[in-house]
Design brief:
- The chain is α/β, with parallel strands linked by helices.
- It contains six helices and six strands.
- A six-stranded parallel sheet has the order 3-4-2-1-5-6, sandwiched between helices.
- Helix 1 packs across helix 6 and helix 2 packs parallel to helix 3.
């Protein structure tokens, strides 16, 4: 599918994040592959997909295990192809031992393989908890202040951002939420403060590049003022 004419390739958002609905035991490989292909086609530099939210750890253990096995399978099946296309693959989320050892190894190997790529960065969020991420950053900063390494007055937005799990990840310009849900589900809590939100009724399993293009076109129709007052 070619890029439709209503998508302005000169005004593509720098970073698109997608919060997916997840009720089954797969990451939705057809959707992920087609969306990545579409993102590359429009020159998107950063794409983040919330493939396994932290809340999924409350699912039945068999369902969770199947989902994590599918993540491992997709990583192993697709990383060489994406590496050949210059995609850097990163994983965002807690790495405190909750992930199966084989999946953690697959993540480490995939990140190492693609680390030097300079095309699009595809970030897969696995066990990412936005509130927990922010709380951990606050705790680390508080400890530094107590130890005398920093003054409380020196803490601003840039300092907080530097203490997040992936400080190099730019704030999303556009956040897309699938399946008719109208909440961000604890995803990138700090980073989405000024993101544009697009909500679609399309479920993730049915989501394709055309849906990405539609969300980008909607983003391009909006005027981003970042709190400034419209002079008119």
């Amino acid at each position: 599918m070619s890029v439709p004419p209503h998508v302005d390739l000169h005004r593509v958002p720098g970073h698109v994040a997608i919060v997916v609905d997840r009720t089954g035991c797969s990451v939705g490989e057809p959707a992920l592959v087609d969306v990545v292909d579409g993102a590359l086609g429009i020159g998107l530099r950063w794409l983040t997909v919330d493939v396994v939210p932290a809340a999924r750890w409350s699912a039945p253990i068999g369902e969770l295990r199947a989902l994590l096995l599918d993540v491992e399978r997709v990583l192993l099946a697709r990383r060489d192809e994406l590496h050949a296309r210059g995609v850097r693959i990163c994983v965002l989320g807690r790495r405190d031992g909750r992930l199966p050892r084989r999946l953690q190894q697959a993540i480490d190997d995939t990140e190492a393989l693609t680390a030097s790529n300079h095309g699009m960065t595809l970030t897969l969020a696995i066990d990412h908890d936005g509130q927990a991420e922010l709380a951990a950053a606050m705790a680390a900063l508080a400890a530094e202040v107590r130890a005398g390494g920093r003054s409380g007055a020196s803490i601003d937005e840039d300092v907080v951002a530097a203490y997040l799990d992936a400080p190099e990840l730019p704030d999303p310009d556009l956040l897309v939420r699938t399946a008719g849900d109208t909440r961000t589900a604890n995803f990138l809590v700090w980073q989405t403060a000024y993101s544009e939100f697009v909500f679609t009724d399309t479920r993730w399993d049915d989501f394709r590049r055309a849906d990405l293009f539609a969300a980008v076109a909607e983003f391009q129709r909006r005027e981003r003022r970042f709190g400034a007052v419209d002079p008119t």
